[in-house]
Amino acid sequence: PNPMSTLYLEAAKVLNKIEKKNVGIRSVIYSEKQNKCNIRKLSALVHGVSGKRKELELILQKSHLLEDSNINQISNYWLLLVLAYEQLFGNLKIQGGGALARLVRKNKDKLYECFSKEYPDLINQVKHSKVYEQIPRYLRVNTTIESTESVLNSILDQVKQTNQFANDDIQNYIWIDKHIKNVIACKHEVAKLLCLDRIPSSNELIKTSKVVLQDKGSCFSAICAKITPGDFVLDACSAPGSKSLHIIDMLNKRGRLVALDKDSTRIKTLIKRISEVPYLAGPFVYKKKNFVTIQIEDISDECLLGEIGCIFLDKESKLIRNNKLIMIDYLDNFKPPDLLIHVAKCDFLSLTPTAEDHLLPWYHYKNTISNLRVIVLDPSCSGSGLPQHGKVESVNIEKRLKSLSEFQTKMLIHSLSSFQSVETVCYSTCSIFTEENEQVVLNSLEKCKNSGNLQFSLEIALENWENPNRSYQDSSFGEIYKKCIFVNSETHNCRGFFLAKFVKNSSR
């Protein structure tokens, strides 16, 4: 029979010593010659068992495993804790053999039953975090800078250089997404190895903005809005910026984007991310009738709160010389640049366009807003679609959802009723709750209808998209289910996401 895993035996020994000598984990692990197993894995396992000891003891007691395991041998006691941790919190399965391993495997269902009865929130959290680990990291290629094929080849070369994956096995770890042709998916372990799972990153592809870390669901906002070069787009809640960067890429150096957010810290993150796009010049702020280049740390609320905020232009624009904005005296009469990005601090609900906005100089964002075609709206939400969020079990969740839903409905109604030139509105959340998704869509359309201002209809967001199986007791959601996008981690292997697309009746 297979022997007991060395890792489990060593972890049990370390835990026993910590208890007996009353010392810290690191001092025990590093004081001995731990050649028998990987120190990082050992340390993680020991920390894990220590952190969940109370829960493990209760689960083992309730499932009567403590009585069945000859627990008078103290080493068995720690080993049983290690094995129970591995089964319930760690890899969710036990490696190797041994009598105690067989005992835990045999009683696996009993352990899970006690776990879910005693700690329902915790079991959901564990389940969701495991799902999260299975989700690949999605890299959206900035096709204005580099082709998807070229980026894919770079990643494949980087993987080969690590010598950690067999050549004929690589396509199981990296692939082009089947729904979005400029998105590359990398399995967790590859992304981690190549530093393609973090910002800031040492990987040149991220440093040079050739790829952006962006979950697959979040890419649908710009795609479903069908943004094309020359469009005027508003990203109403834009920070920290993934969707704005995607819109900039889809504009392909022609068109305008107004990126708004009401939080100063988040908006500085957004400005920093936009300034990393290699073909953009900026940020420029308006001071004393002049545009000046400014360092991000020097941008004050005062700079961002006006109707100009800060702007970015294409480096190849005739208005840019040596990365500076020139011809200031003539700016008002000068032909607007082909590409213009405005970033401003503004609460979207307080943004009320007027008939005179189009008379403002082109560098005022309200001039752009007077001629918008698309609004991308991704307001604050519960974040319940993110697997690491775990299942939301909270006494206040109903209250919180009610307040979020009311806020989201206000935002959507404002988008659908206050901007005369807008033809398309894409509303999205990273939530799985009906209150923030279907209900917001239904309430907004109903309120617009009741106020005699229903100019938009729900449209199929994406052709050939298959939603996960859902059964609706409320038949009023039927149309929403057919036309909107529902993304979930189990079906689509990415974070939860919802998107509804509205198109103006006159432009259908």
Biggest beta-sheet profile: 11 strands, mixed
The percentage of residues in β strands lies in 15-25%
CATH superfamily of the largest domain: Vaccinia Virus protein VP39
CATH uppermost class of the largest domain: Alpha Beta
> CATH topology of the largest domain, which one?
Rossmann fold
Radius of gyration: 27 Å
Question: What share of residues is helical?
Answer: 40-55%
In the residues, how many domains can be counted? 3
Number of helical elements: 21
CATH hierarchy: architecture of the largest domain: 3-Layer(aba) Sandwich
The backbone outline, from C-alpha atoms, is globular
* Classification by helices and strands: alpha+beta
How far from one another are the termini? 69 Å
GO molecular function: RNA binding; RNA methyltransferase activity
Binding site for S-adenosyl-L-methionine: 237-243, 261, 298, 378
Active site: 430
Organism: Cryptosporidium parvum (strain Iowa II)
